[in-house]
Amino acid sequence: MHGTNPYAQAGWFNPQNPNTINNQTWGISAASGPSIFGALPYPSSQKSLPTILTFHYVCLNPDVMNCTITGPTSIPYLEVGTVAAAHGTRTVFRRPDGQAMAAIEWGRSPIVEISSVLPRQPVSHWLRLSADRAHRAMSVNGKEFMWVARDNCFCLFAFGELTKGPLVRIFGAHGAITLEITTEAFHLGVLEAAIVAAVVFQSGRTLD
């Protein structure tokens, strides 16, 4: 994982110890069995659909900017690679078939694009920092969400629902980064956006 403080780089204030990594478990991971494309959650027809789906960012080389993302069944879901570009560097998220799912262009003002989810735009417009620097707002499929730094994790909530449990948690432990997403958030279409946001937050880059 990148050695800088991701809370500070992401632009918001974290009153807790930024160097302490939360490695506590949160909910259930997917059980073994067939899955959609091998890495995605199980079909909705199955009664045993887990409450929490877990993705791991592994093989960090040397950090999250070049890594493999595995899904709930531990099968590779995406490859993340960063290469030199005309005005900085470019990070591309590729599916096993080689198709690009998302891309981030790193420069003075980073640009992000997510296939079928987010049109090309500045990261600072997509993850909008609040005036009090307490959270970042994010829109997905017309619904508003907010990212909050809490308990040494990046937590996603439906906008204005901070008293409820988080829909997504991103945290680092044991040389990897973990993303835990509820099935509710998955069905809201948040998965791709959360996967990309995790790399943005852990990149060590200035976003605004």
Q: What is the gist of this entry?
A:
This protein is mainly β and 208 residues long. 12% of the residues lie in helices and 38% in strands. The chain has a 13-stranded antiparallel β-sheet.
Report on this structure.
The chain has a 13-stranded antiparallel beta sheet with strand order 7-6-5-4-3-2-1-13-12-11-10-9-8. Mean pLDDT is 81; it is low at 1-5, 13-39 and 41-46. The chain has a single domain (6-202), classed as Porin, CATH 2.40.160. The chain has helices spanning 6-9, 123-126, 183-187, 191-202; strands at 52-58, 67-70, 76-85, 88-94, 100-106, 111-114, 118-122, 128-129, 136-140, 143-150, 153-158, 168-173, 176-182. The protein contains four helices and 13 strands. It has 208 residues and is mainly beta. The chain is globular, with a radius of gyration of 16 Å.
Question: What labels describe this entry?
Answer:
globular; 13-stranded antiparallel beta sheet; disordered N terminus; single chain; mainly beta; 208 residues; Porin; 13 strands
Question: What is the assembly state of the chains in this entry?
Answer: single chain
CATH class: Mainly Beta
Give average pLDDT, whole number: 81
The SS-based structural class is mainly beta
**Biggest sheet, in brief?**
13 strands, antiparallel
How many E-type strands? 13
Helix content: 10-25%
CATH topology: Porin
Unreliable stretches (pLDDT < 50, length at least 5) are 1-5, 13-39, 41-46
Overall CATH architecture: Beta Barrel
Overall, the morphology is globular
Order of helices and strands: HEEEEEEEHEEEEEEHH
Tell me the number of helical segments per DSSP (H or I, 4 or more residues long): 4
Sheet with most strands: strand arrangement = 7-6-5-4-3-2-1-13-12-11-10-9-8
- Counting structural domains, the number is 1
Rg over alpha carbons: 16 Å
